[in-house]
Design brief:
244 residues; alpha+beta; 4 helices; elongated; disordered N terminus
Length: 244
């Protein structure tokens, strides 16, 4: 007797015995089959870390007839050169944009050299002013970044995700009979931490990263408070001489 015949006979005798006892087997079409085992794959999404720093400026502004700060802001190439005087690290792309090779950013043992395209735009009459700028202000210079690139990192230190945001505004405020030069600047970085930095505690990494960002925007603030006002003073004298 073959193995197949034996199995069939055994199943027949088993079914006959169950029917004799009043137990009817479940038809095959109603039998439940256990679902096949499937391997579970868990994909863990790595969320980017965000670091930011912001700073404001508020200093006295001394204007002169025929040489208002509004007129000075209209000359965007001159304003840009006052804030970023190193011409070796910048080039003008069009009427509103410049490419800047920024100073290296060092975070622990990684060093990156950001290259950014910065846009300067003048806005007036309270239309589409950046957040925080009063609508009474006659003119505002808006600053933002339209493109960025990280250079100098090896493959092992290159983050899988990186974005850099810089937004700023500079404007004269003549409210209450006191002329003030006011400005605000915010820098924000969103990055998936590369493997070289993954073992560093989040608090320590955040403290170092935000300290680096703060130094960068403080350097820009110093340029506004010093170089920009000095250049506006020269502009004011030039205009006064031309009116004589």
């Amino acid at each position: 007797m073959g193995e197949t015949t034996f199995v069939k006979d055994f199943n027949f005798m088993g079914s006959a015995f169950l029917r004799h006892k009043g137990i009817h087997p479940i038809p095959r079409r109603h039998q439940c089959r256990a679902p096949p085992m499937r391997a579970k794959i868990r994909i863990q999404m790595v969320l980017p870390s965000t670091y930011s720093a912001k700073i404001t400026t508020d200093i006295p502004l001394y204007e002169a007839p025929g040489a208002s700060f509004d007129q000075y802001l209209e000359n965007k190439p001159r304003v840009f050169s006052a804030i970023f005087p190193d011409k070796r690290r910048s080039q003008q792309l069009n009427e509103d944009e410049w490419r800047i090779h920024m100073l290296p950013i060092e975070i622990l043992f990684l060093t990156a050299r950001p290259v950014v395209d910065m846009r300067l735009r003048c806005k007036s009459n309270g239309k589409e002013y950046p957040p925080g700028v009063p609508s009474r202000v006659s003119k505002v210079l808006e600053l933002d970044i339209t493109r960025w690139e990280l250079q100098g990192l090896q493959d092992v230190g290159q983050p899988s995700h990186f974005s850099l945001g810089v937004k700023g505004a500079l404007y004269p405020d003549r409210y209450g009979g006191r002329n003030r030069l006011k400005g605000l600047l915010e820098m924000k970085i969103s990055v998936v931490v590369p493997p070289l930095l993954a073992l560093i505690p989040d608090d320590a990494l955040r403290s170092v990263s935000e300290s680096v960002l703060k130094r960068l925007i403080e350097n820009m603030k110093d340029k506004v408070d010093g170089s920009l006002l000095a250049d506006y003073s020269r502009f004011r004298k030039e205009r006064q001489k031309s009116l004589v």
